[in-house]
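We modelled the chain as a single entity of 112 amino acids. Its sequence is:
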Amino acid sequence: MTPAKRRSPAERSASVFGALGDPTRLRLVSSLSERGPQSITNLTEGTRLTRQGITKHLRVLSGAGIVHGSRRGRESRWELERDGLDVARRYLDLVSRRWDEALERLRDFVED
């Protein structure tokens, strides 16, 4: 079990949101989502960052449970870890439901 999976849902969500708060990491997640697993070389293309810089961002995403990497020979390939994003989505759904319920109670109160 990865360290990210041992945390509570709120802690995992906070970690995911924190990791996605950086534009470079958000772009990496978008690229992996659109194109599937990729090497660091491919993820570096079109950026001003070095491979080491991209690797640093990927490690943050990995620590948040959003991506994972594997090695094939000399090449590292990275792909999305869907569970990490699902935890954050479920948390947002919960918060949204709570707001909807609170607004419904307010509406009922005002209309009575």
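As a brief sanity check on the tokenised model: Residues 3-111 form a domain with the Arc Repressor Mutant, subunit A fold (CATH 1.10.10.10). The mean pLDDT is 88.
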